[in-house]
Design brief:
Number of strands: 6
Strand order of the largest sheet: 2-3-1-6
Helix content: 10-25%
Shape: elongated
Distance between the termini: 30 Å
Strand content: 25-35%
Radius of gyration: 19 Å
Number of helices: 2
Mean pLDDT: 86
Structural class: alpha+beta
Amino acid sequence: RVNISVARGERPERAPRERGESSYAFDARKIYFGNLSWGMDHLDLQDLCGEFGTVEDSRLITDRETGRSRGFGFVTMSTTEEAEEVVRQLNGQDVDGRVLRVNIANVDK
């Protein structure tokens, strides 16, 4: 598909965005995991959280060039209560010789 440029007067107007409105929605089920060991993968994260409920998604953030873990990731649980329980139980715990930092994920861009 090719983009064709259209003169300003010929294209439809967009609704103005409200101040402070973000295209990202806050999801209290999404959990941030920091200080992960480089040996962990997304399945290890999934297994770690699986004890507390149903894991809908787990992502380990990797370096684009090397493919190696950057030491943090995100897990989405099925309910807010399960996510809060994961944070209560795992924040500050030692996993693979590293003390985990576990919080409900922020929406900041």
